[in-house]
Amino acid sequence: MEEQNYIAFEEYLSEEMSTEERLTFEAQLSTDESLRKSFETYKEFSSYLEHKFEHEEATLAFKENLKQISEKHFSKESVTETETTSEEKTIVRSFKPWQYAIAASVMLLIGMTLFNQFSTPTFGDYNQYDAVSLTMRGEGDELINNAENAFNERNFKDASVYFESLTLKDSTNTEYQLYYAISLLETNFFEKADAIFETLSEENSAFKYQAVWHHALSKLKQEKNMESMELLKQIPEDAEMYKKAQKLLKKLK
Amino acid sequence: MSEKKVHEDQKYIDGLAKNNSFIIQAIYDKFVPKVVNYIRQNSGDHDRAQDVVQDVIVTIYHQATEKDLQLTCPFDAYFFLLCKRRWLNELKKSSNKEVTINEEIVSTDEPVQEMVLDTEVFDEKQTLFDELFKKLGKACQELLAKTFEIKSMEEVAAALGISYAYARKKKSLCIGQLTKMAQESPQYLHIKSL
């Protein structure tokens, strides 16, 4: 009996009842108090679960953001707190000679990094990738997971193997091809990588200009700067990586 | 509730629901210092205050996103009273320690108390439901998680390798189990009586 009730609750809530069934059910609810209470609880739980799972990611993001703001706020507050309590005893700080030495070397380091920014660009300045996220929610394909993890951990040797199998399984997925080619590029299989980049940039895929950009980086890694520049010029203004491309172009000139 | 006028401070609630950093920051700047002072004057410290504030904000977030929380009183009073009561509750729980409460006389008018009670009931229910869900068998947990993530029951059935009819029936029975567990829980009856 109980089981039948729960099944009816679900059918009612998901609007799968016919008008007639619905009316009978509603009539039952209005006369049977324990059924109504049970239905209310069922409904509450249903809404709780819906929210819990649908907002799982958003909730995590919110908590993370909140934690950061909170931490910043409270660390600032504890600083002002100690400042006010130690107001009377002003601390005079004197630098010791070795502290000057440290300060000097830090300055030197900063200087060097600044200088490096103006020197010739290398592949290593550009091969930072956003984390790949291929798994659709709820989809638990192991191969996709492995590929994603290997790539995100910058284990490109494994990533290239995983992405190769993925491209074989689903040859129409241009996203797999793009990541396969990047993995190849990272492991110095330039010829194969460049060939894939080329096909991707000829097709009208969503990753067309991504492919051109990475193709240019590939040429940069191979120290074929002229070819790299030619590719960079193909990236139009409305493409996502236009700015990056223009900056790199300037540096290469 | 619906006939009551929504307070202009609803912007804080909406901002939390949208994870708007600017609004969260504003809440910390404007309303949190008062809470911290109160907790520190009443047997608490910095770290405890930080936790209480964070917990209360998460609760408001949940109520805002799940129940479309409508604020009918100033945010300041609502937020302060929530934090204060949560802190006093914590003190009560660990009352083997000596507790000093410097109770200032705050006149809290009815709309504020009503709003606060509403949020507290929501929070208690949320906590209870979390606990009950964890008590559910693994198979039910998995099925429900899939059901609400994927939405389409056909796809759920396919993902779990069961038939559509069975998946649907299972879903009702799993939520049914939770319903029964809740109804048998004294806490749930207590919440319902509030």
TrEMBL record, chain A:
It comes from the Bacteria. This is Tetratricopeptide repeat protein. It comes from Ulvibacter antarcticus.
UniProtKB/TrEMBL annotation, chain B:
Signal peptide: none annotated. The keyword GTP-binding does not apply. Keywords: Sigma factor, Transcription, Transcription regulation. Residues 28-95 form the RNA polymerase sigma-70 region domain. InterPro entries: RNA_pol_sigma-70-like (IPR039425), RNA_pol_sigma-70_dom (IPR014284), RNA_pol_sigma70_r2 (IPR007627), RNA_pol_sigma_r2 (IPR013325). Pfam families: Sigma70_r2. GO terms for molecular function: sigma factor activity. The keyword Cell cycle does not apply. One of its GO terms (biological process) is DNA-templated transcription initiation. This is RNA polymerase sigma factor (Sigma-70 family). It comes from Ulvibacter antarcticus.
